[in-house]
Amino acid sequence: MYRYDNIYLLVAAIVAFILIILFKINKKWRDNSIKKIVDKNLFKKVFPDFSLSRIRWKNILSFTGIILIIFSLGRPRWGSKEQEVKKEGIDIIVALDVSNSMLAQDLSPNRLERAKLALLQLIKKLKNDRLGIIVFGGQAYVQLPLTTDYSAAKLFINTINTKLIPTQGTAIGAAIDLGIESFNTKSPTQKAIIIITDGENHEDDAAKLAQLAAEKGIFVYTIGMGSEQGAPIPISGNNNNANSGNFKKDREGNTVITRLNENMLSEIATNGKGIFVRASNANSGLDAVMNELEKLEKTEFGSTVFIDYDDYYQYFLVIGIILLLIDFSMSNKSSKLLKKINLFSSEQS
């Protein structure tokens, strides 16, 4: 099987070859025209040391060398060996809270950005595990289906903000329910849901749904973002300092303080046969969860066939350079020694 890494250089080599053919046709026509005007014997008498044969050879060497070098730069490769790589891992769905309370700044720079940074660190530790992302507020949506395309996951994580969910709230149960539906129930792969939130759940019975997930063989882990003391919620994602007064207020005009609900998150994790970890500026909590996930059995969920290619570009490159060096070293004048052995002339002396 053949492979050429840079198709544009292959096209350039083909174009160069065509130009050489056109050049040779034009040169042939021009030589024939000169022969009609200037006698060949007269030309030899006027330019006794000038060798037309050498000029032709130099052209052939230079053009061939250039084509081979251009061709080699595209890295031509041939492959005949196929290698099957099995994929073993677990399925992980991260449910990230994007409600406005996640803008509180009791974690630096705020809860949501801290969680996103932790997720990017999580991706670096994944190997063949499949990762999916759910975002939730008053409702839950699949942001990224299960995949091993970690580059795509990074792109999705960077775009996450509180405006993704039009309905405000913290429906943790809806996120768990959607996570359960997002797994392939027929797959024997171990499954886990990681919920990253401040735990201010006002929408549903998340603990009961976590128990339902555990009954289906899905582990539920919770990571609490925030502090027990709490922090005010900046309005519209405003990152002003705490003294600016530009924060969410209740009907009486008092600043709303959002606090971490450790009890609820602990209950959810217990019912889901997972663990609860509270995040801090020094520790995102994902390390502890990953240590637990490492204990889960890795299951084969697919395989990829790779074709092993052998490089051959270096041969074309070396031959091209050698041809150019020979061209540069050759003179346009006839060599007395070569003239005697009649190498570049078809006529006998």
Account of the protein in words:
By secondary structure, this protein is α/β, with parallel strands linked by helices. It has two domains: 2-80 and 311-341, no CATH class; 91-297, von Willebrand factor, type A domain (Rossmann fold), CATH 3.40.50.410. 42% of the residues lie in helices and 21% in strands. The chain contains eleven helices and eleven strands. It has helices at 7-37, 40-46, 52-73, 111-125, 150-159, 172-182, 206-215, 262-271, 286-293, 313-329, 336-341; strands spanning 2-4, 76-89, 91-97, 130-136, 140-147, 191-197, 218-224, 231-232, 257-258, 276-278, 299-311. The chain has a six-stranded mixed sheet with strand order 5-4-3-6-7-10, with helices on both faces. The protein has a three-stranded antiparallel sheet with strand order 1-2-11. Helix 1 (7-37) packs antiparallel against helix 3, helix 3 (52-73) packs antiparallel against helix 10 and helix 7 runs parallel beside helix 8 (262-271). It is elongated and about 105 Å long. The protein starts with a strand and ends in an 8-residue tail after the last helix. Mean pLDDT is 80; it is low at 237-244 and 343-349.
